[in-house]
Amino acid sequence: MTPDALALQTETVAAWTALAPAILLGLTGLALLGVDTLWPDDPSNAVLAGVAAAGSILSFAVTGWFLVAGTGQASTGGAIALYGDALVVDGMSLFFTLIFTVVTAMVVVAAYDYLDDHSHRAEFYSLTLFAATGMAVMATANSLATVFISLELASLPSYALVAFLKTDRGSVEAGLKYFLIGAVSSAVLAFGISLVYAVTGSLVLGDVAAAIGTPEMAGVLGLGVLMILGGFAFKTASVPFHFWAPEAYEGAPAPISAFLSSASKAAGFAVAFRVFVQAFPLEAVPAGVDWVIAFQVLAVVTMTLGNFAAATQENVKRMLAYSSIGHAGYALIGLAALTAGGPNGDVLGASMAHLLVYGFMNTGAFLFIALVEHWGVGRTFEDYNGLASTAPIAAVAMTVFMFSLAGLPPFGGFLSKYVLFYSAIEAGFWWLAAVGAVNSALSLFYYSRVVKAMWIETPVADFEIESRPVGLYTAVLFAGVGTLLLLPGFGPVIETAQTVAATLF
Amino acid sequence: MVGIFDFTPAIVLLPFVSFLIALAVGDHLPKGGALAGITATAGSLALAIGTVLAVAGGRTYDATLYTWAEGLEAVNLTFGVLIDPLSALMLLIVTLVAFLVHVFSLGYMNDEDETGLPRYYAGLGLFTASMLGFVVADNLLMAFMFFELVGLCSYLLIGFHFREPGPPSAAKKAFLVTRFGDYFFLVGVVAVFGTFGTAAFVGSESFPALAEAALRGETSVNTFGFAPQTWFTIVGLLVLGGVIGKSAQYPLHTWLPDAMEGPTPVSALIHAATMVAAGVYLVARMYGFYAISPTALAIIAFVGGFTALFAATMGLVKREIKQVLAYSTISQYGYMMLALGGGGYVAATFHLMTHAFFKALLFLGAGSVIIAMHHNEDMWDMGGLRSKMPVTYYTFLSGSLALAGIFPFAGFWSKDEVLYETLLHGLDGDPILLAAYAMGLLAVFFTGLYTFRMVFLTFHGDPRSGTAEDPHGVRWNVKFPLVVLGVLAAVAGFVNMVPVKKVTGLKIDFLHKWLEHGYAGLTVEHYGELLHDFPHYGSAGLELSPLGPGAVSLGLALAGAVVAHRLYNVPEPVEHTDRLGEIKTVLYNNYYQDEYQVWIANGLTRSIARAANKFDGGVVDGVVNGVSSVSLFSGSRIRRIQTGVVSNYAVLLTLGLTALILAFGLAGGWFV
Question: Burial code of B281-306, b = ≥16 C-beta within 10 A, e = fewer?
């Protein structure tokens, strides 16, 4: 294995360049602060949004290039471990970074309009970029220490971003709640890490895996594993650590809701996938520490609770928040359907691919909410009545998102959900797929309510939609086109995801 | 090298293109798209002739053109072309009849100023294309798909005059009744795939070959727990469901008389070349599969013989000329089925060919008469047309002589061979075949009777209405197809004069020779072996002179003709049907077949449907609605957990985690 060789480059470059996507995101965040410092009075919104978008798109491009070129993947010598195995760049980390960067790009482009009449824009953009940096590091974290640090790096800016609308009671309250729950969760995570360290004597995932075979202190190890699971459940908004999510998503500025529910959730899964698969491999964990069953419980409870609660919401944004919890339940199948020696790469890869598609459709849906908030239209289903007559293009995009989230063809969400359930069945967990399918059927109810309101109902009051914000429209349409194109383009996505996932086992 | 077989797809595609043209720009074309149709079918005819010549040169062709669904471990679904003597012959028949029908339509539709001509010619084009696609199909699934297209086209064309009350109802009936049969066919197709993993007609991996090998114990296939013989019979009978529907055999024949509501050229096409012929052709196409099943053969023969007699008796009392022809079609296809069931593969093909010519002729002749009679079809209003339309009369007479089976017209030779083969195999000791033969023989008499009743009532005697005294003239476009077919009806039988061969020793059974070459698994010899090995046809080694049976059937046909002559060839014929008393009513009402089928549809199906609807509305919907209200209710409960108080969240979160830890700890024995 030649870990410090980058593919397709004639000269051997330093291994740290494999971290370029994360570094680019971080530098962009710093650059934004620099811009703010140079023009403290009135930094141009366009410049800030431009820098943020350019940075995230560049990072996206580099990630894509790495992924295609095979950096850190089997074709060029396998994963690249850095800094004493604290970080590792491999196919999975690149795949997830792809999700974070594309969501970040959409969010900052949309925020250009959303922040039009707000101050402290530079802070907004730089915090977003720093959070994205944290997520990119989360995807590469290969030691429980870096896991914790990067998770905090992603979380702390998020708390501030949720509370960004300082004059809005809802936003501030949501930020505080998010922070408090986050603090509890971080404590649980840190405690869990310490217990695992106590049993195994190591924080590096590979060493943990090597040391957990000893049966004594299985109880302490199990406690630690479950507490770590709890910490990740917070990040992915899974039951019972989901309480912050509906409040935070509803109170936060809509682009931040999009960011948190898509990118941040995916980051939680990235780190959960790596930690559980690499540090606690099923073949090695002692009996009684069967974390797969815990994930099965969480998956079923999370998808059921999310969908059931979403079905009764009156507020579209809150409905989306619960639907986001439901989707966390689907994605948990990636860990819940693992078996020693089963088609684990397929299962995990399907979950990753679903998160990618979800990154498009869910971000798009929240950005549509941002668009509606920008117009000043209300937040309930009734307020959306007849929206299609005044904003048909955006309504078409929202329809695409809704049907794709529900898993209907011909949209990307159909195939990703199908492959996810199919791989669960393949792994022998038909009942997980069945619960997922039932929940999907239920989800169609509340997703189609939005569509019905927009297209079929007659408006209760006249809309006053004067503007067609360029940035928001661009982001929404980009997400819509992405959701559509991921149906024909799903083949390479799922192949890549399943290949890179298979190398983890 | 580009050979004639490379153009085989064009035979199918040309009429399809004419369909597209007529549909798209038919309104702007002269004659409403007729010329496109005539050109296309003429082109197809030319290519079919070329194909026949190539097959006559000993060449055959089988190619998969397009795989439209590729199974990973399962089957591949393909479109392909199979050209062997049988399909080449059928191509020739279909393209010839379709071409002549297109020409005739100029006289029947264009000259009569019908509206909706583009729709008509589009329908004809698609109809022809579907049938040709069916004929060249090299696997059962493709055959099924084109079979269905044929059904769709018949629906469209029978209901052509959709503003009148009759045609739409007849079209629906034709569609539904044949669909009922096709339902079994579809199940059969799936069964064939499930059993053999292939639906190909030809090759060592084709399903007839695999079935034969399985019966001979050389290979094994999935027979779903049945004995192979039983299972193959079941599958064969399932496919036969489609055949019985399309070829209008008892009890699914009821759609065909109603289908007379369609324009007469369409009737000619349906009866002679396309729709109805499809069923019999399908059995011939996969004859290797039926030949191994004695039960299926016996059922085919019995149904055929029964239908032949049954339909012929109903034809006796009809008043409309096309109705008589409709029942004669049912009856004649009964003969073909009789031949197939009785082991007369060549005889069936032969009768299929001669029937195509003389029945197309009779329908077109009837069409000519209908033009002349200003679309009055009642034979009792006709009479004396002989002198006014001699071309129509003499060609119609040629067709009638062929239909009645009078020596030496085409129908005599083919029907004689049908009966002879059945008798020969029946005498081996097969009472079912003998019974079927007896019914077929009896039907010969009735055929002669109803045929000449029709001829005499239409053309002889004195005119019985004003229109008949001064009929509307017809032009070349009507006479030309009539003459072509009239000649064929007279001479087509000479291609296979088996009795003459047996008596004189001359090798003039050209059709036998024709069907003897080609793919090894699709030849007459191979079928002969199968019939010998499985149902034991001809195993007794009986020798039977063809002269005796031939003389009997000719005598019966002549007797029927003579009776018709006595009763109806008088200046002022009267209805003799009243003498039949009660039987007349029964015959007039077609043995109450429609009534009981309507009762099945209305009384039985509808009540079952109602019960199913009740089940769906009550139980299924109830469960669904129950689930949704339970979901919404529990959703609103779950919502209450979200109190908005952050300390509650912290408590719940901690309790949740604790519960998880406790459950796992207890289960995993952490606290020991």
Answer: bbbbbbbbbbbbbbbbbbbbbbbbbb
Is residue B58 one of the residues assigned to a domain?
yes
* Domain assignment present for B264: no
Q: For residue A226, give the nearest of B632, B635, B664 by CB distance.
A: B664
Answer yes or no: do B635 and B655 share one domain. no
- Rounded to two decimals, the ipTM of the complex is 0.85
Mutation site, B627, B637, B638, B654, interface A, largest A CB count within 10 A:
B638
CB contact under 8 A, A181 and B628: no
Rounded CA separation A251/A248 (Å): 5
Q: Do B101 and B127 share a domain, yes or no? A: yes
Q: What is the mean pLDDT of residues A111-133?
A: 87
CB-based contact A188 B628, cutoff 8 Å: no
CB-based contact, B640 to chain A, within 8 Å: no
User: Of the candidates B113, B138, B163, which is a domain's last residue?
Assistant: B138
Minimal Cα–Cα distance from A25 to chain B, Å? Answer: 33
Question: What letter would DSSP give residue A458?
Answer: P
Per-residue pLDDT, A134? 94
pLDDT, tens only, B69-104: 776 566 778 888 888 888 889 999 999 999 998 888
CA distance B662 to chain A (A): 9
Q: Is residue B298 part of a domain?
A: no
**Domain spans in chain A, listed from the N-terminal domain onward:** 290-505
Contacts of B638 in chain A (CB under 8 A): 305, 308-309, 312
Q: Tell me if B180 sits within 8 A of B245, measured CB to CB.
A: yes
Q: Are residues B590 and B658 in the same domain?
A: no
* B668: contact with A, CB 8 A cutoff: yes
Whether residue B623 lies inside any domain: the answer is yes
B79 in the Ramachandran plot: left (φ > 0), alpha (ψ -120 to 50) or beta?
beta
Final residue of a structural domain among B116, B138, B160: B138
Strand-pairing partners, residue B67, are: B78
Per-residue pLDDT of A244-300, as tens digits, reads: 888 888 889 889 999 999 999 999 999 999 999 988 888 888 777 888 888 999 999
The phi-psi region of residue B257 (left if phi > 0; otherwise alpha if psi is between -120 and 50; otherwise beta) is alpha
Q: Does A445 touch chain B (CB under 8 A)?
A: yes
CB B671 to CB A247 under 8 A? no
- In which domain, by residue range, is B625 found? 583-641
In chain B, how many domains are there? 3
CA–CA separation, A439 vs A417, rounded Å?
12
Give the helix, strand, coil percentages of chain A, each rounded to 5. Answer: 75, 0, 25
DSSP annotation string for A158-204: HHHHHT--TT-HHHHHHHHHHHHHHHHHHHHHHHHHHHHHHHHS--B
Whether B623 and chain A come into contact, CB under 8 Å, resolves to no
CA distance A94 to A63: 6
Chain A contact for B636, CB < 8 A? yes
Chain B positions in Cβ-Cβ contact with residue A230 (cut-off 8 Å)? 657, 660
Binning pLDDT at 50, 70 and 90, where does residue B207 land?
confident
The partner residue sitting opposite A308, judged by closest CB among B631, B646, B661, is B631
Is the same domain home to B75 and B128?
A: yes
Question: Could you tell me the pLDDT band of residue A7, with boundaries at 50, 70 and 90?
Answer: very low
pTM for the structure as a whole? 0.67
Contacts with B628 from chain A: Cβ below 8 Å:
442, 445
